[in-house]
Amino acid sequence: MSWRPQYRSSKFRNVYGKAASREHCFDGIPITKNVHDNHFCAVNARFLAIVTESAGGGAFLVIPLQQTGRIEPNYPKVCGHQGNVLDIKWNPFIENIIASCSEDTSVRIWEIPEGGLKRNMTEAVLELYGHSRRVGLVEWHPTANSILLSAGYDYKVLIWNLAVGEPVKMIDCHTDVILSLSFNTNGSLLATTCKDKKLRVVEPRSGRVLQEASCKNHRVNRVVFLGSTKRLLTTGVSRWNTRQIALWDQEDLSMPLMEEEIDGLSGLLFPFYDADTHMLYLAGKGDGNIRYYEIGSEKPYLNYLMEFRSPAPQKGLGVMPKHGLDVSACEVFRFYKLITLKGLIEPISMIVPRRSETYQEDIYPMTPGTEPALTPEEWLSGVNRDPILMSLKEGYKRNSNIVFKAPVREKKSVVVNGIDLLENVPPRTENELLRMFFRQQDEIRRLKDELSQKDIRIRQLQLELKNFRNSPKNN
């Protein structure tokens, strides 16, 4: 039998990336220069939020999507945090509610007015205190309303019920800084990566670790659940310091199903997965390109499609939810690329080339909508439910009638799992210990200088007194 090449049929093999024209970008934005490994950007069907460079605290901009072009330097900001803002996320069910976390150890919930901000916003509708060190990550539950997760540099993940404004659960299984969080489709499992080089699958309501992988050959940085396939994908670094991705079975993390080296660059690889099209996008921090693949159920699992290339490096990327895409243009994914050097936010659309202008049902299956499947109480009691799906046909959107109502409460001690989180100070990281050491050394030098100055002054006074006593006038 003669050898024949194997061609794989895929409706997404010709997907291409299209950058928006300059008038459809957001220009003149002082994007934060913070080196924290986050996207500093969040987007939904109505607003774009970007963390900005600011003095005397942390701030971020919230811009209506239709307000493209140059943004004025005095454009109003959300600026209530006392420290740098490290992460922001929009509520998936209420489009004008956004969560932010900061170096000031707080998580805050903000309600954006209908038409956007007219003046600086300094008062959050809810301030959440439970971490004893800075908070690096926030994540909304995908199916339950008013459930928010936050991960701090105290090595803890807190689960907040925003209906009462309190942390209701604490996940305390990490031994170092948590690098990323990812929920599965119905929010019953949580995957985490940590600086201790371990990948964990956790049952969030009990805090029990179901699976754990010690990644010796693949140092994990980011993790994402691959929809309902019961698989995980991680990005990280190989033992030869090359960028690498690995595929895992969520029920057995003893060995990865597949490992593949990407390149030898040093920037962090961010993974984005589209469960509707089974496409994976890889974007490196500081890169100008975005690679995309199709995930299969059989070996080799990962099929390379194409690469979007751009000369401008990206600091982070925001992702538009499915119901905000332009289905008439066959758009299946949209990024909002942060270009720090130009102060520019550039939309990049991933498009399936089709000649027909009718609705393409094969590339737009039913997708998770804007209505929660569970109340906070139901989820906390152990109920799991898949997302409520919606159709994108003819731009149909099911408007959510949910309104966020902040609880009225007094600031007090926060007790979770029998531990007062505001009193229980965790171990410090090596960097913080070094900073403390250098601050103490500076303080010691300052005190020594003060003492030496005082000693000199005392000797001067003693000499003056001696001269005064020995003067002829006093004799």
Automatic annotation (TrEMBL):
Keyword terms, alphabetized: Actin-binding, Coiled coil, Repeat, WD repeat
Which chain positions lie within coiled-coil regions? 444-471
Recorded hits in InterPro entries, A to Z, give:
Coronin (IPR015505), DUF1899 (IPR015048), WD40/YVTN_repeat-like_dom_sf (IPR015943), WD40_repeat_CS (IPR019775), WD40_repeat_dom_sf (IPR036322), WD40_rpt (IPR001680)
Q: Does the keyword Metal-binding apply?
A: no
A Gene Ontology molecular-function term? actin filament binding
Which regions are annotated as WD repeats? 78-120, 128-170, 171-212
DUF1899 domain location, by residue? 5-69
Which PROSITE patterns does this UniProt record tie to the protein? WD_REPEATS_1 (PS00678), WD_REPEATS_2 (PS50082), WD_REPEATS_REGION (PS50294)
Kindly indicate where the leader peptide sits in this chain: none
As for family, the record states: Belongs to the WD repeat coronin family.
Q: What is the protein name stated in its UniProt record?
A: Coronin
The major lineage groups are: Eukaryota, Metazoa, Chordata, Craniata, Vertebrata
